[in-house]
Amino acid sequence: MGMPIAVYPGTQLTGASVMDLVTNPRAQVDAILALHERFHTPVLLTAMDLSAEAEAFGCSVRMEEGEIPTVTGRRATTAEEIRALPIPHPGDRRTGVHLEAAGRLVRLTNGSPVLGELIGPFSLAGRIFGVSESLELSAAEPELLEELLEKTTDFVLEYACAFKQQGVHGVILAEPAAGLLSPRGLARFSSARVHRIVDELQSDDFTIILHNCGARLVHLPQILESGVAGVHFGAPMDMRAALSQAGEEVILSGNLDPSAVFRSGTRQEVEAKAQELLSFAQGRWNFIPSSGCDLPLDTPLENMDAFFETLKGFAA
């Protein structure tokens, strides 16, 4: 089994725009189902839209027809603004789009696994306060960063709970900014927060997968402290070493480069990279081949074909 993180390439099959997918749950579901029908994907994922939660907190977001929305500016710049920051409710602003899309997928797919995607506490703090500023705060005023993380963790927990109430089988919690922290910083400002969410929500029928596309091997022990059932890594991770160091009780996934391999590579290059990934994971039940991050919307569908066909050939 393998599954790249991919929703936006579905616009090539439905004719919708990125704007449609992040503002209209029906359009998002249509794109997801189109990919599912084309590639017989083993899992259905909601769109990775990591500005939606920040927008709910009041951040300004730039939205363009052919681009994934991005946060502009900083919502909070001082201790006073952090302390006065209200915590939104799941469903506010565009978070409601993704919750409705998740619920529709559950109802339409007759038991196929559905995973919601949402941002993690530290990465959300980075969008609210600024990524570089949050990194500086982790060293200069860690207690103030903890105050902001209390708010972002509260919201992410409630948002993940709202996904669970939609009937999904789990969530992918994206912490890309946490890969910029030192291992000690990651343990304190990301893994400890994720662990709280895991303690509250993870169960036999609700899986939490942590996505960190910036993490390196040095971060692995601290990431595993979070207690998540699975970890999804990006291109910087040495997957061969990670598989040898992690226990079999946690699922590892990744990590073909979404741009260099899936988007810009030839079909033959995708096949070769997928075969390389599979070769050193052979015999490991707890490894799921995937992209290292969200696939760009203009990823050639033929390259996705090559990925899935390589997996089928390897399993035959």
UniProtKB/TrEMBL annotation:
Against CDD domains, the record matches this protein to: URO-D_like
Record-annotated Uroporphyrinogen decarboxylase (URO-D) domain positions: 12-312
Q: Which GO terms describe its biological process?
A: porphyrin-containing compound biosynthetic process
Taxonomic superkingdom: Bacteria
In terms of InterPro entries, this protein maps to:
Methanogen_methyltrans, UROD/MetE-like_sf, Uroporphyrinogen_deCOase
Tell me any Pfam family this protein matches: URO-D
Q: Which GO terms describe its molecular function?
A: uroporphyrinogen decarboxylase activity
Tell me the PANTHER family matching this sequence.
Answer: METHYLCOBAMIDE:COM METHYLTRANSFERASE MTBA
Q: What is this protein called?
A: Uroporphyrinogen-III decarboxylase
